[in-house]
Amino acid sequence: MSSIDSMRNRLCKLATSIELRQDIFHNTTGGGMGTETKRTTIYDIAALAQASPSAVSSVLNGSWKKRRLSKALADRVLRIAEQEGYAVNVQASLLRRDRSHIVGMIVPKYDNRYFGHIAEQFEVMARDQNLFPVVTCTQRNPELEFEAAKELVSYQAECIILTGATDPDRISAFCAASGVQTINLDLPGKLAPSVISDNYTAARDLTHLILDRCATDLKWAGPLRFVGGRRDDHNTSARIAGFEAAHADRSITIPEGHIMAQGYSAQTAQSVLDDFLPHAPTGIFVNSTISLEGVVQWYASLGEAQKWVRYGCFDFDPFGSFLPGNVGMVEQDVVGMLRRTFELVGKQTDATINILVPCRLLPF
Amino acid sequence: MSSIDSMRNRLCKLATSIELRQDIFHNTTGGGMGTETKRTTIYDIAALAQASPSAVSSVLNGSWKKRRLSKALADRVLRIAEQEGYAVNVQASLLRRDRSHIVGMIVPKYDNRYFGHIAEQFEVMARDQNLFPVVTCTQRNPELEFEAAKELVSYQAECIILTGATDPDRISAFCAASGVQTINLDLPGKLAPSVISDNYTAARDLTHLILDRCATDLKWAGPLRFVGGRRDDHNTSARIAGFEAAHADRSITIPEGHIMAQGYSAQTAQSVLDDFLPHAPTGIFVNSTISLEGVVQWYASLGEAQKWVRYGCFDFDPFGSFLPGNVGMVEQDVVGMLRRTFELVGKQTDATINILVPCRLLPF
DNA sequence: CTGAAAGCGCTTACAG
DNA sequence: CTGAAAGCGCTTACAG
């Protein structure tokens, strides 16, 4: 202990009343936000409990039994800590400990059923394993993603889950250099293991479902149109492959212009369809709920022609089953994906690991 | 600098090649997750750049101009830091600095349009102000809320936004003792300023909208039913007051059983209506999108009787306008609420401050 | 203008 | 069984 620390202790011992002690140490400081009271430290509690800072630290971090401190001491310290509203200083504690137990996650959006669910379940499951989750939302912005990952490394995160990251490999490379594990979720990467939905199979199943409904309801055999997403996006291209495979299963040829993967916004989906007023049966594979908003907007504008249209959507929304014309949706298995992800956390992993998690097809 | 530190420095100076230096300091340690490389520190960079740790620190934290270090030195240090993949140790840095710039938020859910949007905008707006946002999702669980707030205090958060907290006052009291500011968002509290939606006015407006539509579409003048939420919940009770006021505006008496605020789940909303098959005009004020799911489920089961029903919902969902029978929704002004909230962050605030933010009524 | 030194609040190996 | 002491990786007042 430094000489100032011991002086502090001696002063505390002299200060018999809490009031006096507060006069000495709880002086308000000017910096920071508002009027800031100096936070209670283990030294304050040690003085109050007539114990050493070491003993207080042991009691507060739970190692007191191992160190065979007396129950009486422990109770006393705990009571005083409670009274004083003590909260450990994580910065000081982690600086000294060898593990942070922090698991980070970057996620593109919260304001989205799928990613919102992922972030929420991630926190629940991390806490269940005594890990401390820190999630941050990076708006699909590659620079922000990288900065956020760097910040998580700075916070001594032990593992970072990269959810739907636009440039996961750059982040994985940086993290690896600091000995921080990364795992790709939802979109794969080359430098870390990946856990993703089985987009191909689910898209193939959904395509068959829409084709079946078109056959039943409209007495029509396809081919369907594909709306939403981007061809160069991994998930969209896997879904297009499934879409094509289902057509191939039925020996249906897909004409050139039927794959309309021109972007993710509702606006784009709607404008792609804008001039299209069907006079004959039409089936649409809608890629993502955000594109669905555009398709439904368009559908609502059709009036009588609605009878010619059936569609299904890859991704789930609880109101989906109430949308007229919607024959089914694909729900991704968020909990399943996270379970597989957590199996990898803290393990020696291989960048070639690529786990495909099946989705659920929900016919309406 | 300690004697070991200076020995380190001397060793570094002897270690002319990067490889040799790595042999000395980049030894893999067993602890933590996977194979962990010792992270690069300012001492490593100092040795590599032939500079003092103080100088490296200044360069890395941007204070080098103020300290008038040479541009050449700064460039050299920055280049080496980049090469080595240096990331500052926040724990060490914050332990020494007087401000953390951390702003925390607890939020009940991410998996919800409203709260998801709040969390997302909070992060964006915090970063815009050079604050570091840390959001955590507490599942409407009072114990978890308190633990999460305590953790944020431990992380030296300067301010914590309590969003929809079930027991905000307990948290505010604890935080105040540590000099940490709290602000209530969405639900008010007694011990900290509150920023909440003007539930009363918006509910009154929505009630008038539904009554108007019932008059036009069904030639019927009310009274409406109120479904969802809990009477003892602040927001629900304000909405019920608005609901009642609108009826009073039109001199309509609301019968006893018409206010069915028996809980938030979709299940509850549906079961409350389950045995009700309308044979005459009916209008429903739906409290929250989660209750809306139940109401729409019920509505879908009505068949022919759908023609007797109109409803509107407090809260917004992008698919809401496509739901048959739905005449309009209330959208809460998330950005407006957060803007008012951030105006309070870091300011000396008064617990009696109670800011009401108007909502937008969206008629369909 | 620049670097050595002190110290932030903890934790734990170590000595007694 | 228990406490003094060292040290985690930074930052900055201070001395030169």
Topology of this protein?
2 copies of one chain form a homodimer.
Chain A: H1 3-14, H2 18-25, E1 28-29, E2 36-37, H3 42-49, H4 53-61, H5 71-84, H6 90-96, E3 102-107, H7 113-128, E4 132-137, H8 142-154, E5 159-163, H9 168-177, E6 181-185, E7 194-197, H10 199-218, E8 225-227, E9 229-230, H11 234-249, E10 259-260, E11 262-263, H12 266-273, E12 282-287, H13 289-300, E13 309-314, E14 326-331, H14 334-344, E15 354-357, E16 360-363
Parallel strand pairs in A: 3-4, 3-5, 5-6, 6-7, 7-15, 8-10, 8-12, 12-13, 13-14
Antiparallel strand pairs in A: 1-2, 9-11, 14-16
Helix pairs in contact in A: 1-3, 3-4, 3-5, 7-14, 8-9, 10-11, 12-13
The structure holds a DNA duplex (16 and 16 nucleotides).
In short:
The structure is a homodimer of 364-residue chains. With 364 residues, chain A is of the alpha/beta class.
Key features of this structure:
elongated; six-stranded parallel beta sheet; disordered N terminus; 364 residues; DNA-binding; homodimer; alpha/beta
Tell me what you see in this structure:
2 copies of one chain form a homodimer. By secondary structure, the first copy, chain A, is of the alpha/beta class. Chain A is built from 14 helices and 16 strands. The first copy, chain A, has a 6-stranded parallel sheet with strand order 4-3-5-6-7-15, sandwiched between helices. A 6-stranded mixed sheet of chain A has the order 10-8-12-13-14-16, sandwiched between helices. In chain A, strands 1-2 form a two-stranded antiparallel sheet. In chain A, helix 9 links the parallel strand 5 and strand 6 (181-185). In chain A, helix 7 (113-128) crosses helix 14 and helix 12 (266-273) packs across helix 13. The longest helix of chain A has 20 residues, at 199-218. The first copy, chain A, is elongated. Chain A starts with a helix and ends with a strand. Chains A and B meet through strand 2, helix 6, helix 7, strand 4 and helix 8 of A and strand 2, helix 6, helix 7, strand 4 and helix 8 of B. The structure holds a DNA duplex (16 and 16 nucleotides).
